[in-house]
Write a structure and sequence with these properties.
Layout: E1 19-20, E2 27-28, H1 31-39, H2 43-53, H3 56-75, H4 77-80, H5 115-131, H6 136-143, H7 158-172, H8 180-195, H9 199-216, H10 220-236, H11 240-258, H12 263-278, H13 282-300, H14 305-320, H15 326-347, H16 352-386
Antiparallel strand pairs: 1-2
Keywords: Metal-binding, Zinc, Zinc-finger
Domain MYND-type: 6-47
Protein name: MYND-type domain-containing protein
Length: 387
């Protein structure tokens, strides 16, 4: 259940409170709002349409998907001028008339597509995996197409990731709650909403996902993933202490479950340190990453997305620390220069990772420059006093 608010007054209903329309399952906080929606809100005209679409959840997913596709195509319009979809070879989608998008690490003339084409391709691949009863590894590789570009093999980002999140959710929302594809689709949607900065909506989805997994008795790995995603939404909404407690538990959980050399443990470590930085607990942040970074580099390589993010997180712990030494600041600048170069090479200059690295690099250089100025003044004063 993703619709967690009254359709009239937006009162938070959680997953089970309130009442539903008997025909289309639209949710309300009580009979007063339901009657008002029927008489004044236009529900009398929409109720049959919503039911025909598959109910309130499916109808909402369809509507949100259409909005997200429009927003993604508009945001990518300048980049996609004169290009065609690499899947259907058309500029405008033959059926939906939607424009093109490109929200990955592809550059030049590569990677342009319609969200509808990307979604249909992912759907077909996943259906084939189900029908042919492929193994877990093959199924996961195909599922990744809901959020990963098949050409550059990097994750989609921003509004394109959000549109694909809604595409994934609308594809599987009609399945039973116990269906694994529906469960994973909720995860894809939550991450997509976060990528587009829809943090309140993302929080509701992630809370619903965690509640569902607890109710179904999900395994520890899936629970840890859901907790980590929820904590990230808490950070975006300024609930840093709550986020830190969850991230610490997730990191400890992955150390026990996967060991210190697993990518999920690296991810959990970086997420935990991001929150430590946010709460200005820089000493703890640096101590943890000094242990984790060499292992991450050895296992994933220097050009891996997570390795780069971890380097940036460590550099921020260095230059943001009020008691940073001149050596700390120089180390931060050096690390960020290398990370920014690698990010530009791997993802391109317009990718959010590259943009974030450049911003951190500018900040670290400013901090170093200010310290150098102070050191120069101090040196001049000491020289004057010595004569």
């Amino acid at each position: 259940m993703i619709l967690t608010q009254c359709a009239v007054c937006a009162t938070e209903l959680g997953l089970s409170s309130g009442k539903k329309c008997g025909r289309c399952s639209t949710r309300y906080c009580g009979p007063e709002c339901q009657v008002q929606h029927w008489k004044e809100g236009g529900h009398d005209l929409l109720c049959k349409t919503i039911k025909k679409a598959g109910g309130a959840e499916q109808y909402n997913a369809n509507e949100k998907y259409a909005e997200a596709v429009g927003a993604a195509a508009e945001a990518c319009a300048e980049d996609t001028k004169g290009q065609t979809c690499y899947i259907c070879t058309q500029a405008l989608h033959w059926k939906t008339k939607e424009g093109l998008v490109r929200g990955c690490a592809c550059r030049g003339t590569a990677g342009f597509a319609h969200v509808s084409c990307l979604a249909e391709q992912a759907k077909i691949l996943c259906e084939e995996a189900e029908e042919n009863n492929l193994g877990a590894k093959a199924k996961n590789e195909r599922w990744n197409r809901w959020y990963t570009c098949s050409m550059c093999e990097q994750h989609y980002h921003g509004v394109v990731k959000c549109a694909l999140g809604w595409a994934c959710w609308k594809t599987y929302v009609g399945r039973p709650e116990t269906d694994s594809a529906r469960q994973m689709a909720m995860n894809v949607l939550g991450l997509g909403l976060t990528a587009a900065d829809h943090h309140e909506a993302a929080l509701r989805v992630k809370e619903a996902e965690l509640s569902m997994l607890r109710r179904l008795g999900a395994d520890e790995d899936n629970m840890l993933v859901a907790q980590c995603n929820l904590a990230n939404s808490y950070v975006e909404l300024g609930r840093n202490e709550e986020a830190l407690r969850i991230k610490q538990d997730v990191y400890s959980g992955y150390l026990k479950l996967k060991g210190e050399e697993h990518p999920k443990t690296f991810q959990a470590a970086n997420n935990y340190v991001v929150s430590l930085n946010g709460l200005q607990r820089f000493g703890e942040a640096k101590a943890l990453l000094r242990k984790a970074m060499p292992v991450t580099r050895r296992v994933l390589g220097d050009s891996n997305e997570l390795t780069l993010r971890m380097s940036a997180t460590y550099a921020m712990a260095l230059y943001l620390d009020p008691v940073a030494t001149l050596g700390d600041l120089r180390e931060a600048v050096s690390m960020l220069e290398e990370a920014a170069r690698t990010a530009r090479r791997v993802f391109g200059g317009a990718h959010p990772y590259s943009v974030g690295m450049e911003q951190a690099l500018r900040e670290s250089r400013a901090a170093l420059s200010a310290r150098d100025d102070v050191s120069a003044i101090r040196g001049a004063l000491e020289a004057m006093n010595a004569t």
